[in-house]
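INFO  loader      accepted 1 record
INFO  loader      residues=95
INFO  predictor   begin
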Amino acid sequence: FLVPLPDLVLYLDLPLKVTLTRLAKRERHYGIMDKKAERLQQAQQAYTTLLQYKDQLGFAHMQYHIIDAHQKPEDLLENVYALVVKHLEKCDLFQ
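INFO  predictor   done
INFO  writer      dumping tokens
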């Protein structure tokens, strides 16, 4: 309750198999429990449920974009950057 609610969520969606492959390539040894297929599926389901019921949960103002992250990193960066710029252009802070 101390953390402000986000007004924009960018959800990078990726097939589980691709996610597991990318995680394995990182060769990191922390967060091992969160890298298992079951935990990744639980996290995906939690986000899906949150976004599905956002209005009922008090997040009606929250905008979100589900982004297909199965693309070249450069393209993904450009797409995410464009969404962030578009959102910031609408903010009072930047008017």
